[in-house]
Design a protein that fits this description.
Helix content of chain B: 25-40%
Number of domains of chain A: 2
Radius of gyration of chain A: 21 Å
Strand order of the largest sheet of chain A: 1-2-3
Order of helices and strands of chain B: HEEEEHHEEHE
Largest sheet of chain A: 3 strands, parallel
Oligomer: heterodimer
Strand content of chain B: 15-25%
Shape of chain A: globular
Number of helices of chain A: 10
Chain lengths: 227, 167
């Protein structure tokens, strides 16, 4: 993003940016940056907090009055991500014992996913499948876990990353209804640490690593922090 | 201190460092280009300026998300479009905040409010989204091709100020 600032300034556009990685802003030194140590993925800090977001933008725009560029100003507040799942995010009990637990679980939270989509009108699903395709995505992971090479299933690296993102999005967005709006990474931790599907994604990630695909296993199929 | 979570099974261990702190540490020393610094001297008051957002969140129109493909291209987003979708390839950040409130990444409503309040002159009718977290292989294409093309779009629109937001 800091690189873009330089190019836009050269084109005659005044820029001001919100930086989330401080050292990168230091190294690339764009003219005006406000460093906000807020959760990654939430650069304006607090969802649904209009006053807080407006304050962040106002502080950023104030840098336009300064002539001592390059400026890297620190926002006075620090917001950290949560290292735990939410206190309560109930998963429905097993419904169909003939299904694999991950697939049964996924089907059990479909109503919550649908309610969340209706509530917010937004989803991050859809790279390769929507909610109707979650069971198929989980079956791909189960097949890989059972020893089938991903390429035999039509899954290259890019498609595996997309699969992981779609399954995660389905669960996290359902979790927003099961637990309520949550702090940063709370539902990520719930998905990867508590749910059957999250454990399956992590296990497949570990199998990819054992197979030598360190690039994917290092932080693309699952977040690097989810060990 | 938050109380221990009430979960049905014991969670596996996670990194002791905050996940965000760990990511910030990992990417702090990535290669970066050296670019000659130029800073526009804004001749107008902010209250007379047209503002556009340029985000590196990899936002795309709904239903137009892509597979994992770090690339230097950009997408033009209509200024009134709220039906955008996160297509960023990295899993290493929170993804629920943007579902709850688009403005936490892409503050189009906040800019509209600032325009209504007279703090800024106006909001451009379109914005730009790049895919962030690019590696050095794509820097030259961004610097020489796509970023200048995106800038020209905004200059042609009469934009004065660009607000850059990451994800």
């Amino acid at each position: 993003m800091s690189v873009l600032a330089h190019v836009f300034e050269q084109a005659g556009l005044a820029t001001v940016g919100i930086a989330s990685i401080r050292q990168q802003a230091v190294d690339v030194a764009p003219p005006r940056m406000l460093y906000c140590e807020f959760p990654l993925g939430r650069p304006l800090g607090k969802p649904s907090d209009i006053e807080f977001q407006r304050d962040v933008i106002t502080r950023a725009f104030a840098l336009l009055d300064r002539t001592d560029v390059p400026i890297l100003e620190d926002h006075p507040d620090v917001i950290t991500d949560f290292g735990e799942p939410p206190d309560s995010c109930p998963i429905p009990p097993r419904h169909d014992p003939d299904l694999h637990p991950a697939i049964d679980e996924a089907q059990g939270i479909r109503g919550a996913y649908d309610r969340n989509l209706e509530r917010y009108g937004r989803t991050s699903m859809g790279r390769i499948a929507g909610p109707d395709g979650v069971a198929d995505l989980l079956q791909v992971l189960l097949d890989i876990e059972a020893g089938t090479p991903p390429t035999d299933l039509g899954y290259d690296d890019a498609k595996l990353v997309a699969l992981g993102q779609d399954v995660r999005a389905y669960y996290e967005e359902a979790g927003m209804q099961l637990a309520g709006p949550s702090g940063s990474r709370e539902l990520e931790n719930w998905f990867f640490q508590v749910t059957e599907a999250g454990r399956l994604v992590r296990h497949v990630r570990d199998l990819l690593k054992e197979a030598g695909n360190h690039k994917l296993a290092g932080g693309y199929v699952a977040p690097a922090s989810q060990r | 201190m938050r109380p221990a979570p009430n979960v049905s099974s014991a969670p596996d261990t996670v990194d002791r460092m905050s996940a965000d702190a760990s990511i910030r540490e990992r990417v702090a020393d990535l290669p970066h280009p050296t670019i000659e610094a130029v800073a526009v001297d804004l001749a107008k008051q902010l209250s007379e300026c047209k503002v556009a957002i340029v985000t590196t969140a990899g936002l795309r129109p709904n239903g137009d998300v892509e597979l994992w493909s770090p690339d230097p291209r950009f997408t033009v987003l209509p200024g009134d479009a709220h039906d955008v979708q996160l297509s960023h390839f990295s899993p290493n950040f929170d993804r629920t905040g943007i579902i709850e409130d688009l403005n936490v990444v892409y503050p189009i409503d906040r800019l509209a409010e600032l325009a209504d309040a007279g703090v800024i002159g106006s909001v451009n009718e379109r914005h730009i989204s790049f895919m962030g977290a690019q590696m050095d292989a794509t820097f030259s294409a961004i610097i020489n091709d796509t970023a200048p093309a995106a800038a020209k779009i905004l200059v042609d629109d009469g934009v004065d100020v660009v607000l850059l937001t990451p994800v």
